[in-house]
Write a structure and sequence with these properties.
two-stranded antiparallel ribbon; 5 helices; 2 strands; 9% strand
Length: 119
């Protein structure tokens, strides 16, 4: 029998789903009730994959960049989104636009990186 990944959100209204039945793969015992999923189940596939790669690489951003083929600002953005998706605050909710523009002016970041950071 084909097995599917657990959905964390309703495909219609996007509210969080509850698990209502568990089945043992060995003896087929079934347990009914209402169970919540862990916070990782509520991340979308992209952020869950990012979290797995980030943990696998022990938080080494250069390795995450290399493995996923993404830039440093994208790693930072995805890390912030993952942290927020897990229900925590990042402390980075306010963006210092002037700082980003100064970095762009100095040539420290590209136009694409500045645009990404301002999103």
């Amino acid at each position: 029998m084909k097995q599917y990944e657990v959905l964390g959100h309703c495909p219609i209204c996007y509210k969080r789903l509850l698990v209502t039945q568990l089945t043992c793969q060995g003896c087929k015992t079934q347990i009914n009730g209402q169970y919540t999923l862990n916070e990782f189940c509520y991340l979308d596939k992209e952020l869950l994959n990012f979290a797995i790669v980030f943990i696998k690489n022990r938080g080494n951003i250069k390795e995450v960049e290399r493995e996923l083929g993404i830039s440093y600002p994208t790693v930072r953005r995805m890390l912030d989104q993952t942290i927020q998706g897990l229900g925590f605050t990042t402390g980075q909710e306010t963006i210092d636009k002037q700082d980003i523009l100064s970095q762009l002016e100095r040539g420290d970041i590209t136009v694409e990186e500045a645009t990404e950071r301002l999103k």
